[in-house]
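Go through this:
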Amino acid sequence: MSAVTCRDVHRHFKDVSALDGVDLAVEPHQIFGLLGPNGSGKTTLLNQLQGLDRPTSGQVEVLGLDPIRDRDQLTVRVGSQLQESTIIPRLTVREALHTFASFHEHTRDIEALLTELGLGGKADTRVEKLSGGQRQRVHIALALLHDPELLFLDELTSAVDPQARLAIWEVLRDLKHQGRTIILTTHSMEEAAALCDRIAIIDHGRIIAEGTVAQLIERHAGGTVLRLRTSGPVRRDVLADIDGVTDITDDGDELVVTGSGQFTPKVLAALTTDGIDVVSMTVSEPSLEDVFLTLTGRRMREGE
């Protein structure tokens, strides 16, 4: 059974179609990335999955249940951390966890949870005195208090330094290895590529691409770009016959060869055979950012 399923989900607000036939399946025990530019329908979809809003039509299932009708059952199985999470800043970390634990019938051992998330040494520190990365760990701890199977995490590392970001990534990987399912939204392509087993890209209320990072790059990123300066003119017909080469163009004094697979060594070998020396060379591998730009026409952070 999928952890999350959407079947032809629509959500209309007067004349605006925020979701326009979303189909989605998230398998358990993975980190699933949901990416989309501002106004794409991403927030509306998250609201559907968390039972905060009802679709105009279509079906949403979370852990096999209806997020609105079965909210009481899902409350003990799902944890959420959103950008607007609020903790009274004068509380210590331990006090904050005990306060939120009082909202649940059954919770994990708080001291063990603090240790697991590297907060044991900060348990008696006021939340307002924590670094950005430490506060985000507190938010993760709050989402984990009742030991949920499924976590919704939104922009978890948007305001933390690189060292804290890497530490949080390790926490998320550990949570996945413990058997949890994580649905992650992020504006960081690096983060999505590093963490997510699969990714869906939403724009204009539709899922426009879904797959592993490698699959998305292969389908949508346009290939590896090889830029060369050579000692003499290059016979294009020789390069065009190389398996994997898809395009050959000039850019000033550079020869630009685009392709897929292991075509670069073959290009260099063909040039050597023709007696052409390579004066300089750069290789640009396609990235998730290229996929996003190709599909949406926008870089992730444009328009924020």
The mean pLDDT is 92.
